[in-house]
Amino acid sequence: xxxxxxxxxxxxxxxxxxxxxxxxxxxxxxxxxxxxxxxxxxxxxxxxxxxxxxxxxxxxxxxxxxxxxxxxxxxxxxxxxxxxxxxxxxxxxxxxxxxxxxxxxxxxxxxxxxxxxxxxxxxxxxxxxxxxxxxxxxxxxxxxxxxxxxxxxxxxxxxxxxxxxxxxxxxxx
Length: 173
Fold this sequence. Notes:
Elements: H1 2-17, H2 24-31, H3 36-41, H4 45-70, H5 74-88, H6 93-108, H7 110-127, H8 133-152, H9 159-170
Helix pairs in contact: 1-2, 1-4, 1-6, 4-5, 4-7, 5-8, 5-9, 6-7, 7-8, 8-9
């Protein structure tokens, strides 16, 4: 229970101050646990970060898979992809910040790249319920790219543009 609270607090701290600003002291304070609990539950900051990012990626993947599992036909699958981009994948600024921090860390550290690689594989597996594997990699990249663009742009991409992009990528299905 305490370990879970620490992991959840770590994600909150990462969202607030980034990986560079995340420390045992800040996480312990956010989790409302004694500083000594950090070393009892985790060998070091790297283990804590790995656990936190792994949990986050699994949670987002579960939402993604659930959305795709609800689709009953090709049109519903396309609508599900649009909803993933416009509402689900990075539902709020916290999720966006954590995702971008993980991506930056994975660009430099192979151990974290394993988390992002597994995350992408789970996303493609969910997409492959409805789309051929020849389409899923491009569709997955579209989902990630448009989600970030929508979140960071001063001129957001509207839902109709997203739907048109999904339609173009999946037209050959």
